[in-house]
Write a structure and sequence with these properties.
With 366 residues, the protein is an alpha+beta fold. Helix content is 25%, strand content 30%. The strands form two sheets. Strands 1, 2, 3, 4, 5, 6, 7, 8 and 18 form a nine-stranded mixed sheet that branches. The protein binds pyridoxal-5'-phosphate. Pyridoxal-5'-phosphate binds at residues 78, 204, 240, 243-245, 265, 267-270, 310-311.
Length: 366
């Protein structure tokens, strides 16, 4: 087991009843209701990580001059806890998230959380709030986990904060697509980019999301669900969506995904999909992939499916690309396509313990 000594437990005296939890499980909305507890551990240069605690979930009091409010030193992760048929609770490749959290921290001049502390916060929280993890019913319900870090130093001086807090909160999540899996439509962002070389594109920081909200709203005004960004230099290479990586399935059995260029977030789902696709006999190629190739591949019928992936939505088929001057459709109208569906099923079967985890990706929490 993990060394959990870093977090003392101060239980919530006013926990939700089993009826209330059942109510939330019956109608989960993404990230709307949170469990009874949260994890927090503080850092400063003198003491390092100290005073870790699991306490009642609730508002935190902060000085208005804390640097996170002014200079945006904030990073986060997105993970899930899955309940298996036998009642045990697992998470998926957490060391990948812990490693990425440390890389994000380094880029944002925040202190690195050691992997064992990162994972202890999660394990302790899920152990205490295990009733909040939905039962295994063959579906896609889980407990969504949101580890994050904020800069807490008080003062407006522009410099790396001398103190920070690592926290974990958790929220029951139903299937991402409540009304069933349907291909999404994607807006091509022509006026805005997500990340430039040397910038923060490979870090999971709130600022990247803040900058993607305006293009996202533009996409929604144009009837789309998601936004795709091109590279910032040539405006030519397909990078990723605001929060998901992209894959292109070819008729010849090869699958292309944009290479990790430093401006793309290194998705754990992306990496897992590459492995699963290779296991299934597909040739997966990581390379630069242009918008022109996308358009021509679809119009000539060489690209048969396009899909996006990330922890929250798992694998999402893409049905349409829309830009200012036009649009095109792709994949099967109803399902997106068989390759995306099969990979999606393979991933879910491992996460929920329904198929053998040959890669050693699962980590037991409870
Ligand atoms: C989180 C995220 C992803 C998906 O990463 P996973 O580890 O698969 O959840 C992809 N792109 C961006 C920009 C992200 O923030």
């Amino acid at each position: 087991m993990q060394d959990t000594s870093k977090f003392s437990i101060n239980p919530n005296e006013n926990r939700a009843t089993s009826e209330r939890i059942a109510q939330v499980h019956a109608k989960p909305a993404f990230g709307a209701v949170f469990t009874d507890h949260m994890a927090r551990i503080d850092w400063d240069a003198e003491q390092g990580w100290h005073d870790g605690e699991i306490t009642a979930y609730g508002p935190i009091q902060m000085d208005p001059a804390c640097s996170v409010f002014h200079y945006g030193q904030e990073i986060f992760e997105g993970m899930k806890a899955y309940r298996h048929e036998d009642g045990s609770i697992w998470t998926f490749r957490p060391e990948q998230n812990a490693d990425r959290f440390r890389r994000s921290a380094a880029r944002l001049a925040l202190p690195e959380v050691p992997n064992d502390v990162f994972l202890s916060g999660i394990t302790e929280l899920v152990t205490l709030d295990q009733e909040w993890v939905p039962v295994a019913d063959g579906g896609e319900a889980s407990l969504y986990l949101r580890p994050f870090m904020i800069a807490t130093e008080v003062g407006l001086g522009v410099r790396p904060s001398k103190s920070a807090a690592y926290m974990v909160i958790a929220s029951p999540a139903g299937p991402y697509f409540a009304s069933g899996l349907k291909p999404v439509s994607i807006w091509l962002s022509e006026d805005y980019t997500r990340a430039a070389p040397g910038g923060t594109g490979a870090a999971k920081c709130g600022g990247n999301y803040a900058a993607s909200l305006n293009p996202m709203a533009e996409g929604q005004r144009n009837g789309c669900d998601q936004v795709v960004f091109l590279d910032a230099i040539e405006n030519k290479w397909v990078e990723e969506l605001g929060g998901m990586n992209l894959f292109f399935v070819y008729r010849d059995g090869s699958i292309v995904t944009p290479e990790l260029s430093g401006t793309i977030l290194e998705g754990v789902t992306r990496d897992s999909v590459i492995s699963l696709a290779r296991d299934a006999g597909y040739e997966v190629i990581e390379r630069k992939f242009s918008l022109e190739e996308w358009r021509e591949g679809v119009s000539h019928g060489d690209i048969t499916e396009v899909f996006a992936c990330g922890t929250a939505a798992v694998i999402t088929p893409v049905g349409k690309l829309v830009w200012r001057e036009g649009q095109m459709t792709m994949g099967n109208k109803e399902t997106g396509g068989d390759v995306a569906l099969a990979l999606r099923q393979a991933l879910l079967d491992i996460q929920y313990g329904r198929k053998e985890d040959t890669h050693g990706w699962l980590h037991q929490l409870v």
